Structure formats: C-alpha cells, structure tokens
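[step 3/7] inverse_fold.run input=structure_tokens len=305
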C-alpha cells in the first residue's frame, strides 16, 4: 500500500569542531533558501517500507519507539543499519531507502517529506551527507518540540497538520544547529556547514550570505574573519573544499536562481548581485548550469507546472 507518491509498502576526513559563536549562522541561508515539511505518516510501520528517490525531495523520519533495520543506497551498495532507540533519520536529498520492521507489531514513526528551495542545488543540501542518523537524546532542547509534534500528529484537530508541518521545520532547524556544532559526529567533513562551525570563517560567510551583491574579494572576506589573506584562504579551502572566490560566485548564482523564481527580471538580478551587466550574469550562469537564466527559468517553470 502506498504511503505517498514514490513510496511503496510490501511484506518482503575529520575536521576540528569549534565552539559555536554567538551569532546566527542559519537565518541568512534559511531565509533565502526555504524548506517546507509535509507530514505523510504517523503511527506504526509494519513489514518493509520502500522510499523511492525523487529529485528535490528529502525525508525526516522520527523513530519514536521500536526496533528496525534501515537500508539505504550508499554509492553502488546498499548499506544496512540496525536501530533500537528513538532516532532521527534525516535524508536531505533524494536517496532510495528502506525500513524493515516486524511484520505485525511494527515500529512507531512520525514522518515528513522535505522540499528544499533549489532542490539538490540548495546550499544546505549540498553541504550534507546523504543520510544522518541521530539518537533523539543527543540533541539538547529537542524534547519540547517533539512532544508537541507527537501530540498534534496523534489526533486530528483544527489546524493540526499545518502545525505539525511547522513543528517538523522547527525540529529540522534544531538538527541543523546541532550539525553545525558537531560536524564530526554528523560525518560532515567539508562544505558550508563545516565552515559555519568555525567562528572565524562563519563571520565572513554570514556577511557574504547577507549581502551577495558586494564585491567579496579575498581581502574583504579575510578582514571579516579577522585573519590574514593566506591563513583565511587556506582555512576556507580546507573547510569548504573550494576557494573563497568560487564560493562567492556560487552563492551569487544560487541567489540568482532564487530571485528568478520570485519573478525578478534578469537585468534586475544582475544589478542586485553586483554583475557588470546582464551578459556577465548570463555567461557565469551558463558556465554553472549549462543554460542561460531565461532558459533555466523556462525549464524550472515547466517542471513545476
């Protein structure tokens, strides 16, 4: 029996973690690239559940109680994990996975799909592994949100589904906070989330994320971080796997796709993001995506229709 579209049921490198700075590292990213959660299951799951990969779609499962086995695609092989305690299972991108529960008295789950703005190109999605499996007890402060989420998902009341969807988004934000503070434990070795875990690099990234139209030279980014140019460039490359200039351009183009989806003209996008003119944006956009901004937007609108 299908739970949602694309989901079927049958019987069958270490990085150094830094102390979190007292600055908001997530809001500039989440305000620009939003995520929407949608509840699709609350209650027992029996037998084998198959969750097919669909482009642009992630999953957040909460194993409330019970024991089960999880299979997920890891490259060319199917990895197998045994779970026996309340656990969060976070799939930020489209990854085939399966749950194997007892055939009659299954494990108790509350599950939501996640739709990230930009899909696989969402900066958060790009910086995370295919799956993060985390015992609920590991995340401080998560209990209150989960208690309310479970209370609302266990019964139908006015506005309950909408509230549950928002609560799933709260749980996701708490999880992302934890990942930034504990990248090693989350098996996040490179990318934006790792850079945000470094208090010095985070200052430069937050400034860049909040003002993508600024000319973010190496000197300017290093000054925001309070570091020399050479030290900043080396630390940035180690954390993100790319150069400050490449990251800055990639962020501008990610923001460009967001602005185009909002209905801004290509000329407006080019000016707001600091490109010399519309052709300069179009050239950079084509090198990154393989299409012009107008071609990309037409394809995006067709796919969303």
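[step 3/7] decode complete -> sequence:
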């Amino acid at each position: 029996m299908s739970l949602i579209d694309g989901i079927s049921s049958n019987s069958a490198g270490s990085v150094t973690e830094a102390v979190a700075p007292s600055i908001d590292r997530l809001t500039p990213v989440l305000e620009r690239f939003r995520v929407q959660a949608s509840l699709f299951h609350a209650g027992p799951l029996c037998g084998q559940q198959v969750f097919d990969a669909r482009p642009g779609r992630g999953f957040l499962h909460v194993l409330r109680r019970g024991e089960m086995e999880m299979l997920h695609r890891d490259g060319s092989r199917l990895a197998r994990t045994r779970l026996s305690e309340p656990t969060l299972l976070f799939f930020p991108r489209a990854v085939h996975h399966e749950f194997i529960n007892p055939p009659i008295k299954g494990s108790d789950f509350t599950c939501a799909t996640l739709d990230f703005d930009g899909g696989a190109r969402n900066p958060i999605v790009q910086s995370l592994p295919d799956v993060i499996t985390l015992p609920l007890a590991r995340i401080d402060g998560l209990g209150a949100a989960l208690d309310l989420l479970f209370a609302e998902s266990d019964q139908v009341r006015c506005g309950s589904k909408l509230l549950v969807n928002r609560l799933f988004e709260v749980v996701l934000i708490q999880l992302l906070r934890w990942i930034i503070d504990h990248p090693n434990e989350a098996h996040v070795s490179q990318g934006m989330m790792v850079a945000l875990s470094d208090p010095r690099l985070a200052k430069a990234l937050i400034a860049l994320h909040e003002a993508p139209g600024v000319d973010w030279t190496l000197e300017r980014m290093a000054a925001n971080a309070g570091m020399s140019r050479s030290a900043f460039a080396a630390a940035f490359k180690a954390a993100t796997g790319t150069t400050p200039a490449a990251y800055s351009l990639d962020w501008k183009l990610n923001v460009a796709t967001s602005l185009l989806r909002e209905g801004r003209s290509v000329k407006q996008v080019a000016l707001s993001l600091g490109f010399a003119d519309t052709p300069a944006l179009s050239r950079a956009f084509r090198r990154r995506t393989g299409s012009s901004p107008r071609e990309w937007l037409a394809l995006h609108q067709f796919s969303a229709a």
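[step 4/7] annotate
The longest strand covers residues 35-45.
Strands lie at 7-10, 35-45, 48-51, 57-65, 68-74, 77-83, 87-91, 97-100, 107-116, 132-135.
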